Amino acid sequence: MNVLGIWDGHDSGAALVQDGQLRFAINEERLTRRKLEICFPSRSIDACLAYAGLAADAIDVVAASTSDPAKTLARWWPWSKEQYYAVRRRQSPPGPLSSLTRRAKYTVTEWRSWPLLEAASRAALRRRLAPHGLSRADLSLVDHHAAHAAAAAGASGFDSCAVVTIDGVGDGLSSTISIFAGGRFERVASSPASASLGIFFEHVTSLLNMRELEDEGKVMALADYAAPIADEDNPLLSCVRVRDGVIEVEPSGFALRSALARVQWRYPNEQFAYLAQRVVERTCVALARDAVRLTGLPRVALAGGVVSNVRATRWIRLLPEVDELYVFPHMGDGGLAVGAAALAAAQHGSSVDLNLDRLDLGPGYTTSEIAAALRRAGLEADAEPCLSARVADALEQGRVVMWFDGRMEYGPRALGHRSVLARPDRADVRDRLNLALKRRVWYQPFCPSMLESEASRLLTDWAGGRNRAMTMAYEVAPCCRPRLAGVISTTGTCRPQIVADDAPGAFAEVLREARTRWGLGVVLNTSFNIHGEPMVCSPDDAVDVFLRAGADALAIGPFYVERSDDAPAPTVRPAPRRQ
Questions:
Q1: How far is CA 24 from the centre of its chain?
Q2: Fewest CB within 10 A of the end CB: N or C in the chain?
Q3: What are the φ/ψ torsions at residue 124 (nearest 5 degrees)?
Q4: Is 535 in a helix, a strand, or coil?
Q5: How many angstroms separate the CA atoms of 392 and 324, rounded?
Q6: Average pLDDT, the chain
């Protein structure tokens, strides 16, 4: 059974499930080089088929999700989402009717699907799939939140659990609570799209003059720099509440934006961010508590864009009524292709196992392909026999190394395949990374990758588990914080990747080499990209970013390339979009 999952909305992509096993997954942005791509995932589909060596007629089922009015209209008239994308990413100024179009956009996204719309979505999808030779395959169109839930439960490893999805909007809903047991789902609560925690935070992000659907993490980071305000004095807490697993927002719908703007006028930006962050934390905790109470299940699996908020998920993990918590690593809409494929495969009789212990699910490249990319750029390098040791030596000296190894990661986090590495204890290196290389705001913290034996002594609340892919915040022990100065927030927490001490591969070897040099098997690890661009995918992408950024060295495949002291300063220019 070959099931191809696709998602053709925000952060579009595709995934291939063969006989119940996830074989390949990628998002379109990595191939078009346009951040959070919204176009139909044509390149991703081709990449899935190419990896597995499958002809299109070998695909049994194509699984997609979401058939609400907004999604159906975008499938038939894709120019509408292109216009929104350009304005949202500040590539085009808003037009004279921008306030009306914004109101219309939020109103339409609240509507639910009905049979005629589902038929229209199927027809639009069939039209786009035909050029790929996928006309023979069955087309499964699944519910938006059901796809999120299937991804979270399927990858959790739990035989039974409460599944909570917390999103912006999809198929007329903003959150759901379900029982997962015996391979089946039973939804026990849901919140309407007009009462959305995700839309609440999206409005906050936009009002702070940041890009909604992209910069919510900046809002969370900015909140750390506010003077704390007691919850009883927080005017936003009265806007959002939870009752029996259902989110209630007052005022609901688009009127919420005006109410938030009135509050913002009274507070500095960092305090407004703090007020909103507390709403997200408290609402998520209330939903999780209700989920355990309504389902009777103390293990919880999470998915949906809001659960990328690692502060909120940490508070859920610490709840006494939650025994175990799992966060799906590609929690936003970019992970819907995997969820849709898993759900469709199960509905067609496959036993599905979404083992995501490894997330290197994207393309890989041969040594000859890497060498050819270096030659095209005029870079000369010989294979390095002790590459991990060479990289650790450079890091010890305070250098920044761009790291490209193996297949590309699936999801938003760099996990040792497309990474930028530095020492974890140097605040000056952190600042150089933020301002000179990544070119992003100074207050966003970086993340550490660490060996598991380090986690047990550096993190006060690490107790093992499957949240190893930078999906959760943990508290760093006060005595260890100076040694992790480059990778912790002002609250003393970090968002780590945890790597088994005996893990195979060159990246794990870098961590082991690091421990012999500065006494900790920890490195600063951030995504291999320039801010506002997708993470690199191919060797050509990696070389291009290396030449445009200011890193000291590039470790790519078996090769190690150093930037010469007399190299010209990197030129800041956007990467071209692939046509």
A1: 17
A2: C
A3: -65, -40
A4: coil
A5: 35
A6: 94
